Structure formats: C-alpha cells, structure tokens
Amino acid sequence: MSKETKNYVCPYCGESHDTQDGLKSHVFKSHKGRGLPTAEGRIKLMINKAEHSFLVEPSWTLYYLIHDILGLTGSKQFCDRGACSSCTMIVDGKPVLSCMMLAIECDGKTVETVEGIAADGHPLIEAYVNNHAMQCGYCTPGFVVASKALLDRNQDPTEEEIVEALAGNLCRCSTYPQHPIAVREAAEKMKAGGVK
Amino acid sequence: MSKNSEIQTEQMLEMFDNLKADKYPLKEYKYIGQKGPRRVDGLAKASGHADYTMDIQLPGMLHMRLLMSPYPNAKILKMDTSKAEKLPGVRYVLRYDDPEVQQGEIIGKTAGFFGLDRPLSDSAHMEGELVGAAVAAETESIAEEALSLIEIDWEERPFNLDPVAASDPAAPLSFPERYIDGNHWNRGAYDELTHGDIKKGFAEADKVVEFSFKRTANTWVGPERPCGVCKWNGDNVEIWLKHQRVHLPKSRISEWYGGIPMSKIEIHSLYQGASFGGWCQIDWNLGPLWCAGAVSKRVGRPVKYIFDRREDFFGGSMDEGTYFVKVGFKNDGTITAVDTTLYHVNAIWPVFSPALHIHDNTRVQHLHGHSKSVWVNKGHTVPTRCEMLPPVLTQTMIFDHVATELGMDPTVVALKNDGCMGHDMEWAREEKEKRGFPARDSLKECIEKGKAEFKWDESWHKPGARKLPNGRMHGVGFTWAHEWDDSSGGGEFAIRIERTDAAATLMAMGADQGVDAENTYCRIAADELGFLLKDVNYNPQVYRGFYRMTPDSSTNMSVNGWAVRHAARILKQKILESAASPSSPTQRGSFQPAFPNMQPEDLDIKDSLIFVKSDPSRQMSMADFVRLAGESGPFATDEFLGTRVGWSEPLFAVGYHIQYGAYNPVNPRPRFCRQAHFMEVEVDTETGEVIVTRVVNVNDVGKVINRMSCEGQQYGGSIMGVSRAKFEEVVHDPVTGVMLNGNLLDYKIATMKDLGPIGTILVETGMGYGPYGLIGIGEDIGTVVPGLLAPAVYNAIGVWIDEMPITPARVLKALGKI
C-alpha cells in the first residue's frame, strides 16, 4: 500500500485523512495543546498502593507484567500454568493465579503482591520467618499472599479454614505443617495489636 | 605459627576422613542444638525479595529454547531451519551440524549415556530429549514459534520402556549410537555386593520366601525449573545457574569453548528453588548452558534458557525398576540369607547393590545383591533425595515380608537383626568403644521412643484384622534404617572478622536449597568463636574462593561442619594471640597489646567479649578490639594529631575437611546411628483410597545443631515420601513412547490436605562421625518413608501391593475387585 492511499486516523477524534501531512495539520489545528492520547492496550492499575500505567500486549499475563515488566519478582512460576498457586496475587481483594489472568483484564483494578504485604509490615512476614514456614522459599510468597487474602476476609481462621484456604498452594519441600501455625500466630498478633 | 595454632591445625588434619568419634567437642553449647527462630534467609524469602536464577533479567537478554524430540528413539536425517531463521525476533539458530558443536566438547562427566555429554546431539533416545537446534530470540514465545517452523526428516527406531523386557537379548537397542551389544550397563564394583555364602544361609533357614515388586517412574519436581543465564564480558564469562553444586559446572565450563581459565569464570548461585539431587546429578541441563554461552558469545548479548515444566519431567528418581527378592529366615525372625536383583532403569550414577543397607546395618551374614542397569527410552534416573533409595526400599520390603510371614511385630524382627556389616551388636559395642563412641543402642532407643509416641503396641495388629467404624480398614507400618554419612568430598570454609563492628563473615560458595544450613554453620561458628549469633553472618551466593558441599543437612553436613569448626578454632586462636600481642607493629614501632602482659591462653571469648579468664571483669568487646586494630591503617594525619590508630593483620582463617565417605571399601566405617518410622493408614476397600492418618519419625542425628532444620527434614521428608508412595508416577504411552503427564495437574504431588499429623523425635547418641557426633538427616526421611506405605497397607488389607505408587486402582486390583 503506497503512502498516498493510506488511511491516517486521528487518535483523538477518529477523523480519517488520506496523508500523513493532512493528519498532522488536523491534529495541530484541532487538538493543539492536548496531552498524548491513550494508546490502545494502555491500562492503569493500583499496584501495592501506587498507581501504575502500562502499555500491554494482549497476550501478557498479569504475572508477566508484574514479574518481568515491573520487576517485582516475588511472585513465582512453579508449575508453568494454573496448578501451583506460587504466583498468587490479590486482585480487587481476591486471591487470583496471576499466570491465568491477562494483564489487559486488570485495567482499573487494585493489585497486591507479596512485596506490598511486606512493605506494610504485615505480621504474616514475621510469623513465617519465626515458624520456618519455608525451606527453599520458592513457593513461600504464594502462601503469604494467599494467607493474607484469608486474613483479610477472616481475621480469626481455624486450622481447618487455613488448610482449606492454602490447599491449592504446592510446596515441594513440604513445609505444610508450619503454615497454619504461622497464620494463627499472625492472626493472634493482629488481634492483640488491633491490626486490621 | 604459635604452639596453640599448631595444635588447632593438627586437630584439623587428625579428623580428615575420620574413623573415630569427635575427641574435642565443646564443653558448652549456647546456640548449637537450640530451637531458635533465626533464619538468615527468612525475611528475604517471606517478603518476596529473594531472587532465584529464574528471576534474572539482564539488559538486552535473549531467550533460548531448544528443540524436543517427538520420538523416543530417533535420528535426525535432515533439518531445515530457514523458516525459523527468518522469523522476526529470532536472533540466532544454533544447529547440531554447527562446526563448534561438531567439535564435541564434553558438557559434563555425568551427562549420561544418551549422548547427552555433547551439546545438541543429532539423535534422541527418549521423547522430549533436547536435540538438533537451539533458538535464541527476543522473547521466549518467539523462540518457541521458531522451533515449530523447523522442518526435520526423522529416522524413527523401535524403543523400549520396560527394564525387564529391555534386558532380553532380542530387544531393540535403546541407544544404538553407543551401546551396540545390548541394553545393560554394568558399572562394576558398586553394582554387586556379596557377603558370606548365600547357599549356606538359605540352608540354615527355616523358611524361604521369594517375591518381587516394581517401582514405577517418579520424579523430583523442583519448584524452580532448570535454568541459566550466560553473559560474556570480553573474555570473562559470567553465569547464573540453578545448580546445587556450582563448583562442578564451573570446572566443566572451564573446558568449554576451547578452554577458559577458572579465574575468568564468574558464577552466581542465587537462592535455589530446591533440587533434591535431581537435575544437579546430571549435567544434562548444562547442554543448554553450553548453547547459551556459544550463542551469547556470537551475538554479544546475554542469553537465558528455562526448561518448561514438561522438560523438567524428563529425568526421574533412581528407585525406578523391578526388584526380585529371595530371603531365608528362622522361625524366631533371624534372617539367614538375602539374594536380590534389581532391573534398574537408566541409572547413570553408581547404582549400589539393593542389598547394601542389609549389609551395612544388620547382622545378616549371607547376602548377595545385584543392580542391573538397563537402558530404556526414558529419562535418566538419579538420586532424588538420595542414591540409597533402592537399598532402603529393599530393606523395608524384606523386613516387613519376614515379619508378616512369621506373624511377628516388625519392630521385634528389626531388633533381632540389627547389627553392622554382618556382625552382631556385641561386635558393634566393641567397635563403638574402640572408636570412642558411647555404648548406646540407637535402634533400641529409636524404637522405644517411637513406639511410645505412636502408641504402637495398641495400634499394631494382625493383617486385615481391624475394621474401623467408618468402614475403612486400619493398618500400621514400621520401618528402619541407619542414618548415613556417606559423602565423599571436601568442604572449605573461611571466616573473616570484619573491621569496624567485628562481625564474623563466613565464606564458602554453596547453594541455598532451603534447609537453613547457613544458620547451622553460623551456630557452629558462633559457639566455637564465643560470638553472639547476631555477630555471625553468611551469604553463600557470592564466590570468595571457597566452596562447600551442598545440599546440606544431609551427609554433607558433617563434612562442612568440620570445615566451619576448624576455621573457627584456628581463627579464635588468632584473635586471642592478636589480643595479647603488640598492636600496629610497623617500622615506626608498635602499640600496647589490648590485653598487656597476657598470654593467649589467659584469654577467652564469650558473647563477643574478649575477657581475662582469671578476672572476667577485665573484658573488651570484639568491636572495640577490632577498632583498636584499626580499619584505615596508620594514616599520617592521625599521627600529626597524636591520635594514630593501630593496625593489625586481617583476622582471617580457613578450614577444610576431606573424607572418602563410608562406601570406601578399603576402610569402611560401621554405622551406629539409626532411624525408625511408623505410619498409620486407613484403606477404603470400596474405592481403593489410602488415607495416611499419621506418621512418627524418630531420627538419631547424633547431635542436633539446628533443631528446626532437622524437624523440617522430618515432616518435609515424610510428606514427600507419602506423596511419592501414594501419587507420583510418570506415565508413558506404551504405543508411542510419549510421556503423558508431564505437568502438575496430571502428575499429583501432596498438598496440605494429604497427610495427618507428623510426630518428630530427635535422638542424640553422639555416634555420628561428624563434629560433636552429628550425622546428616536431610536425605533420610524422604528416602525411607516411600517404602513404608506398602507394609502399612498390607497390615490394613492383608494383601501385598507389589507395584508402587499404591494408587486406588492398584488397591482394588490387589483385592480382586477390578
């Protein structure tokens, strides 16, 4: 297709022009002084209480965006896809597998990662360290995030409720017995300290 | 060197390849053995700030993927990569016929039999083998797409999957390029073990039984998949690698690309998403690293590769195989003879006779065991938790079969036959005395403690005799083994006292596999130096000239533990000598010692304070002492001002330890520490479901250093063991040879809901050959517990299930219901 016959579309108002020069003069005349238009694929998210904006490709997962593009590497890929919960993030208050969610679906949503939970000084972090609720540590962030989501909705969970909430998180080192202990310890601390 | 320093060095050398008890333990322990929360890696891991090799991203980094063979036994006849090369985003396609690849550099000594000791082979001997081509592209998905555009003419060949069938001389060759005489590979001394005269032993028996069982393919499932990054900085190469013993690949890399001096290879060992042996026992994952390095050099950009989860499944645990056992015994439970043969799938490590454990920790005098390594067209099998998997599985099955044949309590049969290398416990008692160990009976202690915790006497019953109110059948199982300390190798540790704050920094590169070993070594150093634990730190990820053996908490703990202790003792002596010596000796003179008119032996260190033994009120903190020594050297300006600071030699020491390991046939070490494990199950005879309701682990670790780490290996090993015993099986299609379940949805591993409570008991008899009498624990439980499910299920239903894992289908089949 030659340059002359191209259809040049104004990103602000959608008006078509036959040439690039025509489009330029239209933009200069009609939209002078405005900021750059929002490109298709640009999303805004609140990540760990900070506003972010990204131009994302349709195939990107939330995991890829957070881990590879933003560089918050706490979330982990253990299984490949959808089986291990190591990449768990809290999206609009609910724990999700970030490897199974497209980034472009997250426009306008709030995302919490393990780094944000740690930055807030959540008692879970200390409880996990105290109780050796980790060995190699690769799956640990996924457990911490899933536990945080549980404590958000249930501040005084029983051992059975904790096991149920974390049953989808795989740990090959098999640290499982320590997690209910750590979560209970954090819950007690939150109760005692009035942490919400 | 002072006399005291000479003594420390002599003591270090004395304990090399030690055959005796620790003659010089500490009198007091402050941190060793205590249950403390401190994990040096804890905060980083819990907060998501711990970086692993898979997390590494470098500017301009390319992503590499390798071609997988779709056939289990095939050869590339022709390959066209032109379409792949033209795909936008592809930066390089490395082919098997590339001149540098054709030079055939060896990627690793344990790369295996399937031609995997060379990068990019033109022939494949299992479905999924990485062969033919490697593509480096801007993204992983572009590299994947490029692979799909490669056109190949394959020569498909017949294949084997079953080791017994593959042993038939008429079977097709699994690896015609290398093993043209058949599918066996005899590794020699390790494979076969004969002791006594089995004919005589069987003649002495009141009863002889024969049985066989099969362990199907299972694998390690390391959470972080095999991966690496290679970057050239001029003629220096920088590498990030997931590997539990990075010093081994570093040696290999030095032989690549025509040779690189070791000093020009910088290798990073970040946090490791656990290996359990696994890939790190095979150098196969170094093949992609070789390719990444070759391409990185050519394109001038860093190159990263990551195996996908399915590729990680092409390798398995070395208990896979078919076992044949003949055992003779007397009516009182005394075993008189054992003859056992294992058709072992693709074991590339020394296989070890399946009778090895029976030899090492019983008084059975007549035995023969033979492992026959058979090549089939599946992945390698390697130590996954430990190379002792076949011997301990064999021991469990032998002891529990004998007990059930006689209707005896298996704990009684165990005690009846406990011993060492064909000798009885009286011989063991004499050996303990000779070697300086206490006269304790480890198995008896372990069994007594375990039985009490488990309530064994109330729980054990005749097979198939107890139906529960919920309709399920109740069963219990017991097994035992020795704790092992077999590492062959050396460990090196250095410790340096930092300037300014006098923190002690441990130095030795290793892999943090998660067993909290770093904390363990800090505890040893703190107690030996007399430092507060907070003043001792260790980051194993940085290379500073020393390597330790990993993984830790296992048998390597004794080797590394000695090295840390030697370094700490030599360093402490240096500190005390320095404190009693003139400070800042230069040509301009020197200053008063920190402790004037004292000899080093008049001083000691406790809680990071140097003090005079006869008058502890005369003390100085290590930090103040080091400041006196100075951090800046004798600056002239200080002298002008009349405040010249002192200076002393760096406070630094290195210790190391070497041992041949307990398998040294010339001078073997009898094993005295034991472990005992108890399991309770419920079996639903309608559905075949097996529910493991509780487990009790008892481990005599000789001396506990890091209690929570030991307990972590107990419950962690138990859960992994139950997972292997109940669920884990890699399934291949018999028609195509293709793996069917290489993912974590179809290959199940245990979750939080799959095991009831686990009791963890640690016994400390001090009868290990490590420092303070310690012995490793990390490998043991995950290796022993998988075999325990079969006797527990037998006790429930009265039928042996001779194929593992024990799935509902196999239970129903054994019960004749399907």
Write the layout of secondary structure elements.
The complex is a heterodimer of chains A (196) and B (818).
Chain A: E1 8-9, E2 16-17, H1 20-30, E3 42-47, E4 50-55, H2 62-69, E5 88-91, E6 94-97, E7 110-112, H3 114-119, H4 123-130, H5 140-153, H6 159-166, H7 178-193
Parallel strand pairs in A: 3-7
Antiparallel strand pairs in A: 1-2, 3-4, 5-6, 5-7
Chain B: H1 3-14, H2 42-46, E1 62-68, E2 74-80, H3 82-86, E3 90-95, H4 99-102, E4 123-124, E5 130-137, H5 140-148, E6 151-156, H6 163-166, E7 184-185, E8 192-195, H7 198-204, E9 207-215, E10 227-233, E11 236-241, H8 247-253, E12 265-268, H9 286-299, E13 303-306, H10 309-312, E14 316-317, E15 321-329, E16 335-345, H11 356-361, E17 366-374, E18 381-382, H12 389-406, H13 410-417, H14 425-435, H15 442-454, H16 456-459, E19 473-482, E20 489-497, E21 504-507, H17 517-529, E22 536-538, H18 556-579, E23 583-586, E24 589-591, E25 603-606, E26 609-612, E27 615-621, H19 622-629, H20 636-640, E28 652-659, E29 674-683, E30 690-700, H21 707-726, E31 758-763, H22 780-784, H23 789-797, E32 803-804, H24 808-814
Helix pairs in contact in B: 1-18, 12-13, 17-18
